[in-house]
Amino acid sequence: MCGMPTILMRMAQSVLTFTDRGIYCPAGDFYIDPWRPVDRALITHGHADHARPGHRRYLCTDACAPVMRHRLGDISVETVKFGETRNIGGALVSFHPAGHLPGSAQIRVEVAGEVWVASGDYKVVADDISEPFEPVECHSFITECTFGLPVFKWDDQKTVAKDLNAWWAQNAADGKASILGAYSLGKAQRLLAMVDPDIGPILTHGAVENTNEVLRHQGYQLPDTIHATPDLNAKDHPGALVIAPPSALGSQWARRFGPSSTAFASGWMRLRGVRRRRAADRGFVISDHADWDGLMSAIKATDAENIYATHGYTEIFARWLNTQGYNAQVLKTEFGTGEDDTQAPSGEAA
Fold first, then answer.
1. Is pLDDT above 80 for 6?
2. Nearest-angstrom CA–CA distance, 35 and 141
């Protein structure tokens, strides 16, 4: 771990402070992923709990900006490339891949030689579409712990892809549509990169297809999809895979596809009780957040001594880290909206 002298321990809070508006850097006069309107907001990624409307100025990666504009409208956005260093007031700032979804970043902030990293959301395994996670050494690390319990361990992506494609192929052989619930930004595109388009046509809900188009225009490679518009005749696409937001499962929109099998893709599918309450035929355990092993490896790679745990099993996670020699604390934030795996369904998360 970074051996930070006592005097620097006392100074550390001056790099980033925690306010009712969000994580604030006094030296640079900016906030990271603030949840209330501010003058200058540095944004880790485009999910709604991290990229909120109402800020006067935004700064994010060039890969994140198109999705933010799509979601937030006419906003003032400045962009940086991954690894590019910016001087903002008295702070040195750079953005580094978080692996969470396309364009997602960790934000490194250095003030007078003291380094903090705000991770946003992240995962450490490559997914064939997002920029791979890059460990960043620091003195203090703000980490999510959405899945901060040992029970959460993800299967290899190739194994999940094999199971997903087998489910789809069997449904198609049985004359059923396969309706897969997945969040429209990140998870849906990851699943599209995993499925075998030779099995049949792929239909998408408007929320998913609109996001697909934004990412395609940036050069991200996705298989061909068909927007399931109101005038689409489902009978013209037998055996289709239908990807839609979780809220669409069981809705009138989904019933239009006739006989079907439904599934939900989420890290929460590791818990049997959540699978039952989702009332889906299948649950595929796949998440755009780090599992227990991923969290542990990411924290170790930072070489940080001070860890701030946010959105997830924070109390349990921080206690465990303290037994491992870290100086760990819980950071209360307003992240977690259920737009991705950040919030467990049916109140399952802490």
1. no
2. 20
Q: Give the residue range(s) of CATH 3.40.50.10710 domains in the chain.
A: 157-284
pLDDT tens per residue across span 111-136 = 999 999 999 999 999 998 999 999 99
Helix/strand/coil (H, E, C) string of 83-150?
CCEEEECCEEEEEEECCCCCCCEEEEEEECCEEEEECCCCCCCCCCCCCCCCCCCCCEEEEEECCCCC
What are the residue ranges of CATH 3.60.15.10 in the chain? 6-152+288-347
Residue 307: name the closest of 6, 62, 29, 4 by CA: 4
Cβ proximity of 181 and 187 under 8 Å: no
- Architecture of the CATH domain 6-152+288-347: 4-Layer Sandwich (3.60)
Q: Burial code of 297-325, b = ≥16 C-beta within 10 A, e = fewer?
A: ebbeebebbbbbbbbbbbeebbebbeeee
Quick one: how far is CA 168 from the chain centroid? 25
Strands 114-118 and 105-111: antiparallel
For residues 228 and 203, the answer to whether their CB atoms sit within 8 Å is yes
pTM, rounded to two decimals:
0.92
CATH placement of domain 157-284 = 3.40.50.10710
- The string of pLDDT tens digits covering residues 204-220 is 999 999 999 999 999 99
Question: pLDDT at position 347, please?
Answer: 38
SS3 76: coil
Contact 242, 204 (CB under 8 A): yes
Q: 331 in the Ramachandran plot: left (φ > 0), alpha (ψ -120 to 50) or beta?
A: beta
Q: What is the pLDDT of residues 41-76, one digit of tens each?
A: 999 999 999 999 999 999 999 999 999 999 999 999
